[in-house]
Amino acid sequence: MTPFPAGPTAAPTRSSRRPALVAAATAALLTAVTSGLAVTAAPSMAAACTGYVALTFDDGPTPGNTTTLINTLRAAGVRATFFNVGQNAQSNPALVRAQRDAGMWIGNHSWTHPHMTQLSQAQMASEISQTQQAIQQATGTAPKLFRPPYLESNATLRAVEAQFGLTEINADVDSQDWNNASTDQIVQNASRLQAGGSILMHDWPANTIAAIPRIVSDLANRGLCAGMISPATGRAVAPDGATPPPSTPPPSTTPPPTTAPPTTPPPSTTPPPTTAPPTTPPPSTTPPPTTAPPTTPPPSTPPPDPSGVCTATYRLVSSWTGGFQGEVTVSSTAAISGWTVRMTLASGQSISNVWNGVATGAGGPVSVRNAAYNGSLSAGGSTSFGFLANGSSSPAPSGIACSGA
Questions:
Q1: Letter string b/e over residues 162-185, b meaning 16 or more CB atoms within 10 A of that residue's CB
Q2: How much is the pLDDT for 373?
Q3: CA 356 from chain center: how many Å?
Q4: How far apart are CA 172 and CA 247, in angstroms?
Q5: In this model, does residue 154 exceed pLDDT 50?
Q6: What are the E-state strand segments in 148-246?
Q7: Is the pTM for the entire model greater than 0.70?
Q8: At what angle do helices 20-35 and 206-221 cross, to 10 degrees?
Q9: pLDDT in tens, 358-380
Q10: With contact defined as beta carbons under 8 Å apart, do 180 and 263 qualify?
């Protein structure tokens, strides 16, 4: 998620001293999480709670990151609400089920993470409907909560939400994790949470995951516990049945990352073009050989062609007078650590916004490379990026090709 106006600043409250036993347990949990050990979830602390807050995480699920986040939350003995992007849920249904199986709640965060207030009513309905279907197909239950991307809403959007029986959820506190906030800053921002409120965090920043044990400890010091968001009121309340998270690890189709997930948030607008490093080696100062080169032929097996390890498929999501929304799905035939899609837009077409990718160029020849969090794909894996464009949707972008690294 990209920047949005900071949430209201809550007045600080007086902290009470936490019992030494709880402090020791939190330290043990932190040690276990950072060392990768399996940890049994802490028992429910509902009896000690004087109020509840909602820990929320947007933009998932993402391979590698979501599993680590779930395990960290379970080790801390808390449950949270995940506002999933529909196309991510469709691409990673096992991770959506892992969220459910870990006792987390799942909400709708639109299909492609657009600026919803810039769409027509029909486009708004499409964004919400596709996500409802993807999450219901993965879990058997359709969400009851909707968080608009960028926290942007209006009366038209709220009317569409009502058609799907959804309650709109904003945020009382912005963690600023999308803005590369440090772990200390995230913990400090979370300290503004008050009973009934929710904090905006994201699925992908490493600093957010590192902050979770400290956030939970601070909440306990203030008599607050992590709870669920009531669809009736949109406020944090006691968890349904006060059931603690399960102690068995959730299933995952992707092993936990060996390195920390990126801390740079995905851009919401097309960044300026970046200059690629030179692909030719610098000139050598070694004098040319005085004898003829060897006559041994080169190996008969050529290196793999990076253009053949992934494919890109375009589809038109929706169109309107003067603009359209497109989506490109990237599929890999071998494991890759990054990808770039090249395509050519017709005359009069220009890209105005890209998500889940970084674009170079706006009209004519355009290239889109992976964002910091979706470049690694296993053999047979896929991801997608979307864009809004000005101009007619016909003809479709041509010459679409993918190269992997």
A1: eebebbebebbbbbbbbeebebeb
A2: 65
A3: 9
A4: 30
A5: yes
A6: 167-168, 173-174, 198-202, 224-226, 228-229, 236-237
A7: no
A8: 170
A9: 889 999 999 999 987 678 888 98
A10: yes
